[in-house]
UniProtKB/TrEMBL annotation:
The keyword Lyase is assigned to this record: yes
PROSITE patterns per the UniProt record, alphabetical: ISOCITRATE_LYASE
Protein's UniProt name: Carboxyvinyl-carboxyphosphonate phosphorylmutase
Keywords, in A-Z order: Lyase
Gene3D superfamilies named among the record's database cross-references: Phosphoenolpyruvate-binding domains
Phylogenetic classification of the source organism: Bacteria, Bacillati, Actinomycetota, Actinomycetes, Mycobacteriales
GO molecular function annotations of the record: oxo-acid-lyase activity
Length: 288
């Protein structure tokens, strides 16, 4: 009997682009399966917003994310789940526990990133990254903690924004050399950057296509030509569901839904309190 992990491994080795819609609750997971998708992506941003009413700025905890992953795995059945595990929620020792928990939850792949904790959505400003060597320790801990080699480790670098594309590509290749199964360079800006990453990173590649984000929404055909392995669409379903809810609520009040429609990630997170959390963060920083 083929497991979802083995299925994802087989899909990855086939050379055909894997399209993974973002799932965040039981309904989105069931619909992803019933509409015939071959893989799904547990979006941390979607879980934070839909499950906890929070923006994607590192407020959701390890155990909250693991429990959501467990439920999504059950709903998806034989459809493999790629799970967003943020930074691993601490130092290398914490990462080992994180991987063990997600492993037992049944995910097919675990995504870890090199941001400083608390992390931010990859398409928000003012991100910071840890030293490359620190994240290599994260990867070593993750690879050692998994129960079997069929569980994929996805290494994400957010270095493009704070350090530039050259640094992001250098990190990507170092993470691949450290043993990551899939490499994810977050938020390339423009088609030329997408193409350069495909040329210069020697590993299976994941690309993140965010509605209203920094990365152009390239077609599946073009990404296949460039050699990308996985395309995640974390906000496609959530954005449509959100606007439908806004329309329904505004219809009941006789107001204009367009007034509440976000135009990008920051606007979406403002619907769940990003501005208020930013104000609180500034207040705390001022006191410190």
């Amino acid at each position: 009997m083929t497991t979802p992990r083995q299925t994802l491994r087989r899909l990855l080795s086939s050379g055909e682009l894997i399209i993974a819609p973002g799932v965040f609750d039981g309904l989105s997971a069931h619909l992803t399966k019933r509409t015939g998708h071959r893989a799904a992506y547990m979006t941390g941003a979607g879980v934070a917003a839909s499950g906890f009413g929070l923006p994607d700025i590192g407020l959701v905890t390890q155990t909250e994310m693991v429990e959501r992953a467990r439920m999504l795995v059950e709903a998806l059945g034989d459809v493999p789940l790629i799970a967003d595990a943020d930074t691993g929620y601490g130092a290398a020792l914490n990462v080992a526990r994180t991987v063990r928990l997600f492993d037992r939850a049944g995910v097919a792949a675990i995504q870890l990133e090199d941001q400083v904790f608390p992390k931010k959505c990859g398409h928000l400003p003012d991100k910071q990254v840890v030293d490359t060597a620190v994240f290599e320790q994260t990867l070593a801990a993750a690879l050692d903690a998994r129960s079997d080699d069929d569980l994929l480790i996805v290494a994400r670098t957010d270095a493009r924004a704070p350090l530039g594309l050259d640094a992001a590509i250098e990190r990507a290749n170092r993470y691949a050399a450290a043993g990551a199964d899939v490499i994810f360079v977050e938020a390339p800006q423009g088609t030329e950057e997408i193409e350069r990453i495909a040329r210069e990173v020697e590993a299976p590649l994941l690309i993140n296509l965010v509605l209203g984000g920094l990365t152009p929404l390239e077609s599946a055909e073009r990404l296949q030509q460039l050699g990308y392995a996985i395309a995640i669409h974390p906000g496609n379903v959530l954005a449509r569901a959100t606007f439908a809810m806004v329309e329904g609520l505004c219809e009941l009040r006789g107001t204009n839904a367009a007034e509440f429609a976000p135009t990008g990630p920051a606007g979406f997170f403002d619907l769940v309190g990003l501005a208020e959390w930013a104000t609180l963060d500034a207040k705390i920083a001022g006191k410190e």
